[in-house]
Amino acid sequence: MKKCIINILNILNIIFKYVPYYGILSIIDSILSTLVNICFNLILIRIVADKVIEGYGFYDIIPYVYYVYLLIIIASIVKFTKSKCLKPLAVNKLYNELHAKIFDKAVSIDLACFDNVQFYNEFFLSIKNIDTKIMELFEYIIRLLFLVLTLSGTIAVIFTLSPIYLLICMISILINWLSISIKNKYLFTYDVEMNNLKRQSEYINRLFYLSDYIKEIKIFNLKDSILKKFRANVDTMRKTITKYQKKFIIIGILVNFVADSLIIDGLLIIKLSFDVLVKKTLSVGSVISIIKGVSNLQWILQDLIEVLGDIHINTRYIDKYNEFINKENVVSDGDKELILADENIIEFKNVWFKYNSQDEYVLKDINLKISSNEKIALVGRNGAGKSTLIKLLLRFYDVSKGEILFNGVNIKEFKLDEYRKIFSPVFQNYNMYAATIEENISMDICNEYTANVNLAITSVGLDNKFNNSKLSLKSYLNKEIYDESVDLSGGEKQKIAISRAIARKDNSEIFIFDEPNSYLDAISEYEITRTINKIFDHKITITISHRLGNIQESDCIYVLDNGSIKEYGKHEELISKNGLYAHMYNAQAKRYIFEKKVG
């Protein structure tokens, strides 16, 4: 209950912070609606009926009607203005503000969270129509205000006539309250179960409209196996619906038959008939007022229970949203300003690391030092720990043991945003965004890096593509969003990814290339490798590559195996050692010679 009240206060705070005009008008609307209900349904009808029986004329009664209908007109204008004019604008404003907050949090949250399936479920719940959920909850709160005010007025009117009628209604409402409370308990668990199933269904739906998937579905004839999973998921949904539907039917029978038919329709009518026909203690106006009042009280209390239940259920979604927004990161922000030196140095000192979900260390006792103007390479078999080492350097994760230093200072002490700005990584799994090619290269809506965009496309050879086709920097990518977008080959997309680093050559200090040539042809691979070495000759560059021919000019090559550095040195030194590096290099060289002979 306490948490529910806190959530209600949070919702009111959000509404009056972002859309105060809508919040204020909603309260006014609720008050006016209450006055209309009490004045029209209980007071006006009683007055008119009694005045007519007592012999009053039309002109004696019309002033009462006039004032009530004036109130109705004012209330209607306020309600129309709120729902038709202000609500669409308020929903749009909430959508903008809340999703901006969610996006900010998603960027700042630990990368480790995205390795957790449970996090995805909670994340999906937290962002699932959160703006409409908050608006719905606010509407429930306003509805609650209206019901409480109307309930107070109705109870006062009925109590002045006879407390017995109030007691009959309360018995019915008690049954309603118990049944709806049980129903609401099931509703939330039902929604959570269905949410996970819907997320799986949406994933399968995406497979059939994203081009990267549809190609493999066609070639490998995956349709049947995917449809099998889809149908299994739908069948699980059906079973879940059936399981809860039985419970909801039983609850519905309890409410509709026992509470409404037996108690209200039966007991209440018997009592009212007795008072009118036998005791003759009620006037015509009083009878009408009691019937309207009891009806009023019945639906008000039923509505009140349902609204409280809806608030209780929906505040659980707000709980998920608040948990997500307030989630504390393991990778915490430092408070130290980062100051660059004439010669910057990165140092790994006795670094060990393992993922939270694993018992084994992925990196073991890593020691290495990199200085400005130095080009190093990380090589090794798949799963050796190369990409994990980069994730630690970028502080996507923090080390389990040991420390990473930048110019002698533990990187945990720096402000995260400032620290990450000195890096320009080209990830192995890069992405193209629904934006222009220029924006995909600059990767900055403030155009901080656009000055070097032309240099970047020339350096990777994309200028020839632009000169010989309709392609330009203003061309859009992603057909899912833009109808007139262009298609690029895998190699061209990789060139754009490399262009991002070149565009930042004057703004970053450390450049990371994780398999930068995997989609490139041999000539492009050779030319871009030379370009990278030339453009970044005064910077720190770290290259991860399985193509050992591309890293021969590195100042130092670190060979990782099973999470440890097995050997390091220049290309010639490692070849002379005849160790793991020499074995990998010679194996590649033999393959190239064999392919050349076969070709």
UniProtKB/TrEMBL annotation:
Residues 346-587 form the ABC transporter domain. It comes from the Bacteria. It is a multi-pass membrane protein. The keyword Membrane applies. Its main location: membrane. Residues 30-264 form the ABC transmembrane type-1 domain. The keyword Membrane applies. One of its GO terms (molecular function) is ATP binding. This is ATP-binding cassette, subfamily B.
